[in-house]
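Render this sequence as a predicted structure.
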Amino acid sequence: MHVSERLLQLYATLDRQTRDIVQQRIETNLADGKSLAASYHELTGEMHPSLSTEEKSGADFSNWLKEGKTELDLLTYYVALLEKSEMLHSEVFVPQAAKPTPQPVAEPIVSKAVVETLPEKTTEPETETSAEAISPKPRYVPESTIPSRTERMKSHREIKPARPRRKKSRGWLIGLLAIILLSVGGYAAYPMVSDLITSSSTPTATEQPVTPEAEPVAETKALEEVWIGVKNAPLLSEPDSENVVYVADIGDRYDVIEERDDALLLDLGLNELAGWVSRDEVVTEWTATSINDADVLDWLSTSVNQTLFDESPEAYFGMDENELVGNVGAASGFDSDALHEYLVYPGLFFTMKNDQVEAIDWSNTDQTKETFLELGEPTYETEDGVVYESENYSLRLFIGENGSTRVRVTKLNQ
């Protein structure tokens, strides 16, 4: 069981006076500073191997209570001494001047996820083979040999013009006719000669091989949202930090702000808070609605303790603290963390966000994983957690290390 879950259980069972006595004993013992392990040994006479040897003072402990109990070393130390509250309460102790005792932190209810990595798809470009160069056929092939200009001139020279009469000279007329014939002959022969010259002098065009362009590599789409895929996932101030900003629960959904190696920065959706989580603790795909609202409400009416309620649990969602106390009475304990406030009652607690009831948790129920799964195919399931989602509700089962179970119903999109 996560230490934050144990803290909530202790707050539900110990009265306020007992908790105040334990806190006063701690502040007095730590005083100006000593290690948490040494302090525990002095107060209980026992050793606790998991406690830190780092020195802490009474002021450090008081500030830790006020600031939301996010440091894990002090949380483990505090829970260990609450478990020994009977021993500390029975010992003779003269209380010091009363100090205002901050309210304890309710279990930030956490969850887990398995990241599915999207594979990059790379397609190898196909290599095209260049086409063989094909020599163009000549546009015209003469059927017979065309006489050369010299031969044509020779034939013209061999033609002997008629001898003119001596009385009248017609040499000018013959010369004119010869010029006309030569001009007409040259004009008629030009296309054939031009084709021959063009066919023989134009080089054969060779097609250049076409180099295929490489196909672009498919890019992995940037993540926009994830869901917690483990029972409890601590969100850290930095990827390699031990400072816990908030503890998320299985099934919690968050927008992704930034990706860095194996870590994701998640938007917590309130007061600009953000926290880093390992990719191994989230999932990137979430199954659609698996049951309907009526299934959730019917199951709650028969499967969890309803003695505190005059109405169906759905009626309490959206109530502020005053309305809630007016309906179910004053809480036996209060707690808070970076995102929520918790009103603790015997056997259950209400989670408040933005001054409205967001979720109800029943602790130490008689439900088992097997009976819980009779609801049908779950939206998400791990070894120690199960999630069902309908259109407006999230119904979850948390299983502790000792087999104890806790049931939570959350109003979605509130």
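Summary. The chain has eleven helices and 17 strands. Residues 92-144 have pLDDT under 50 and may be disordered.
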